[in-house]
Write a structure and sequence with these properties.
Largest sheet: 4 strands, antiparallel
Order of helices and strands: HHEEEE
Shape: rod-shaped
Strand order of the largest sheet: 1-2-3-4
Number of strands: 4
Strand content: 15-25%
Helix content: 40-55%
Number of helices: 2
Number of domains: 1
Length: 148
């Protein structure tokens, strides 16, 4: 059976078109996978920073519960990466200034509990930019004066 002239050229163009569509779909899938991987990594880091922030507030409670409960207010405090209990809570949190790893900001809000006298509510919030959006991870804990 003889082929018509130009038939193999058409087959080649169709095959190249199908391969290019397949390559574009594959690249889109890889791009989505990389973005989701980066989001998961940042979310895990933010969770670890928020949990360590709660642990820092537990250490502050153990150091001085009256200092912790005396810090209760509506505004949030800045909780940078190298914060120590002896530093106390004094700097207001500015969510636009990223101090931790150049990506994350960590703030703590301390409020008095209405249910119990020797109890404070601690909320640690970690913010970061991801694809033009501000992402947030928050840990909430209730701390009590356990020593009397």
């Amino acid at each position: 059976m003889r082929q018509k002239p130009g038939q193999s050229l058409i087959e080649l163009i169709v095959a190249l078109g199908m391969m290019s569509l397949l390559l574009v779909a594959l690249l889109a899938l890889v791009s989505l996978s990389v973005r989701n991987s980066r989001l998961a990594k940042n979310n895990n880091q933010a969770l670890a920073l928020a949990q360590s922030g709660v642990e820092l507030m537990r250490a502050m409670r153990d150091f001085s519960f009256s200092g912790l409960s005396g810090s209760a207010r509506i505004d949030a405090y800045d909780l940078p990466q190298n914060w120590q209990v002896e530093d106390g809570l004094s700097v207001d949190c500015d969510s636009d200034s990223y101090q931790i790893n150049g990506v994350f900001s960590r703030c703590v809000t301390i409020s008095s509990s209405l249910e119990a006298i020797d109890t404070v509510n601690v909320t640690v919030t970690v913010n970061w930019q991801e694809g033009g959006q501000v992402k947030t991870n928050q840990q909430i804990s209730r701390l009590t004066r356990w020593e009397r």
